[in-house]
Design goal:
Length: 643
């Protein structure tokens, strides 16, 4: 529907009817009207009289029509006025007109309802008497800054209602004229719900909704302020990182509602264990942090820490039983030898808390600066090693494994090296320890396996079929997706046969989780991939463990091989390992063969498989084919020496 076609439903005043139009309408009514005299009587009257009677009758009709028009106009005006006052009174905002003195001249019903008063309680009173004391200056500043003309000023303030309520309103004001008299027109909008929502958001931004404690953000601000205060006053303070022991088990077993109740209870008791000047915050989950201010001596700190431990262990009654957790606390102090901020102190306390976990939980540990330096250095090395992996600075070297009796090269072991841009070629002992228990061990492990498979394919292209053994980190082996990931890597190298890949795990690693290691070994055996137990003899494996692991090969640790010529104990251990290999039908290979004397004694003991510097040092992949040719050419002479 176009603008011209829209139906106007608003009541309007009717436009005045012109005299000519009114006369024409009156004439039409007259023609239809009943004559005032019979026609015969009218005809006997003089013409002038007849005309006068006609005019009088038409004029009477005109007067009646005018009266009707005026009546309708008056009714329309009254309806419009009533609608205006309805809209004025029932508007969703408060309207008020003030005299220059601030006295209320007029107010609508909405404002009266907002304030909870009768309208009569507003008129002739001063509006500032309803403004909350803390916002009086805001109101006066608004009125003083209000420019002449149509410009509008806006502010937010609270009104104080007679019933004690505080009402947030947005106030808009401007100058106006009322019958030539300057007045102020104000519009007041109730924004109490908006302010309540803002306050709720503000609360949630700084406080934990469950316990009512300050959250991480607010605690960071409070901690920085506490540090600044301690710096200026020379006081000591402690930051305590708190992690609940056993909370996850209770939360999983009894549900989140019970877990929440336990958190609330623990938070309450820990807060009670602190002094009035101390503070407690919830960082999230089952982690809290306490700030102990104005510490004069170590004994005071220890009493407070023990109080926190006792508070955390306070039992929660639940269905005729007592649910209980403990806490591990990490503590660091201010001031320190170097200036420190709140974030650094939280990290220090966090590190100390993990040490408390490691020593048995339900205890506290103080931050160790030397240990921190080691951790920082480890993180730096991990980052640099991650870059080395991305920058292709890591390479594989290969050390041959041979049958001493036949001279056959039975395979090679892949050994990682770091071609460091500044330090040159680094052996794994120089860098690999920082990956222990870290995701980097998985990344590097998968890279090594993939590179080994790629190299097997390259050797295949040269007509060389070679088996490669790869060391697998314990953290890598324990991943739930280890076997599927291995299958994926094998699928990317379809020409490589499963027997050409052998995985080596340290004996100590296997003993950490025998069940998991045993399952992975079985799953890999189904794929045709065999396992070897590396550094065998150093982990004190029981026969039960060895039976469960079912590896294909035992690798005698080089420390026993190297010293067997001079140390009877090492020789006895070596003989025992060879006996275990025969008993469990495992192949046995000796590492660390450095001289021909080692090789000769091993053969006498029945150990034919060996690797070590006496056979070949680890070498780049491209050197292996030539080394194999050289080795095979010298096999007859070596066999003659052995004979």
């Amino acid at each position: 529907m176009s603008h011209a076609q829209k139906v106007d439903t608003e009541p309007r005043l009717r436009s005045p009817v012109s005299i000519n139009t009114l006369r024409q309408r009156a004439q039409m009514v007259f023609k239809r009207a009943q004559p005032i005299l019979p026609k015969d009587d009218l005809d006997r009257l003089p013409q002038a009289t007849q005309k006068l009677l006609h005019e009088l009758q038409v004029y009477q009709i005109e007067l009646e029509m005018q009266n009707d028009e005026l009546r309708q106009a008056h009714e329309t005006l009254e309806r419009t006025r009533a609608r205006y006052f309805d809209l004025y009174d029932l508007a969703p905002v408060g309207y008020v007109t003030l005299a220059g003195s601030g006295r209320i001249l007029e107010a609508n019903l909405t404002l009266a309802n907002l304030l909870g008063v009768h309208r009569s309680a507003l008129v002739e009173h001063f509006l500032h008497s309803f403004v909350a004391a803390q916002h009086q200056h805001v109101f006066y500043l608004l009125l003083q800054s209000l420019p002449e003309g149509d410009s509008t000023r806006t502010c937010e303030l609270q009104l104080s209602c007679p019933d004690g309520r505080l009402l947030w309103v947005q106030l808009q004001a401007n100058h106006a004229l009322d019958n030539g008299t300057p007045v102020l027109r104000l519009v007041l909008s109730d924004i109490s719900q908006l302010k309540s929502a803002e306050q709720r958001l503000e609360y949630l931004a700084h406080y934990d909704d469950l316990t009512g404690l300050p959250n991480r953000q607010l605690k960071a601000d409070q901690l920085q302020q506490a540090i600044e205060k301690a710096r200026l006053s020379g006081e000591h303070l402690a930051v305590v990182y708190i992690d609940l022991d056993g909370f996850k088990r209770i939360n999983d077993q009894y549900g989140h509602d019970v877990g929440d109740k336990l958190l609330i209870e623990v938070a309450h008791h820990m807060q009670q264990a602190l002094r009035p000047g101390d503070s407690l915050a919830r960082l999230g989950g089952d982690e809290f942090v306490a700030v102990l201010n104005n510490l004069n001596d170590t004994r005071t700190c220890e009493i407070l820490l023990q109080g926190l431990l006792d508070a955390a262990a306070h039992p929660l009654p639940y269905e005729h039983q007592q649910l209980q957790v403990t806490a591990s606390l990490g503590v660091t102090f201010y001031p320190q030898a170097e200036e420190i901020d709140g974030d650094q102190m939280l990290r220090q306390a966090d590190q100390a808390m993990y040490r408390a976990k490691l020593v048995g939980k339900n205890s506290y540990q103080f931050f160790d600066a030397q240990q921190d330096q080691l951790v920082r250095g480890q993180h730096l090395e991990q980052h640099r090693l991650q870059q080395a992996l991305a920058n292709q600075e890591l390479v594989l070297y290969f050390q041959p494994k041979v049958n001493l009796r036949s001279g056959q090269v039975i395979g090679v072991e892949a050994l990682i090296r770091w071609q460091h841009p500044e330090c040159g070629l680094l052996a794994p002992a120089a860098f690999l320890s920082v990956t222990e228990g870290h995701s980097l061990a998985i990344d590097i492990g998968e890279w090594v396996i993939n590179q080994a498979l790629t190299q097997i394919e390259l050797w295949q292209a040269q007509g060389l079929e070679m088996a490669v053994s790869v060391n697998v980190d314990a953290h890598h082996l324990q991943q739930a997706d280890f076997v599927p990931q291995l299958q994926g890597l094998m699928a990317r190298h379809p020409t490589v046969q499963p027997w050409q890949l052998e995985l080596e795990i340290l004996e100590n690693s296997a003993l950490q989780d025998v069940g998991s290691a045993s399952q992975v070994i079985e799953d890999c055996q189904l794929l045709g991939i065999c396992f070897a137990l590396d550094d065998f003899g150093t982990g004190y494996s029981s026969l039960t463990y060895l039976k469960r692991l079912r590896v294909a090969m035992l690798k005698i640790d080089q420390s026993f091989v190297r010293d067997m010529l001079d140390d009877p104990d090492d020789l006895s251990i070596l003989e025992g390992i060879l006996g275990l290999g025969r008993a469990f039908h495992c192949a046995v290979i000796a590492e660390g063969v450095e001289t021909s004397a080692h090789g000769e004694l091993l053969l006498q003991l029945g150990c034919e498989l060996a690797q070590g510097y006496g056979i070949a040092r680890p070498m780049p992949a491209q050197n292996l084919p030539d080394w194999i040719k050289s080795w095979q050419q010298n096999v007859p002479s070596r066999q003659a020496q052995i004979a």
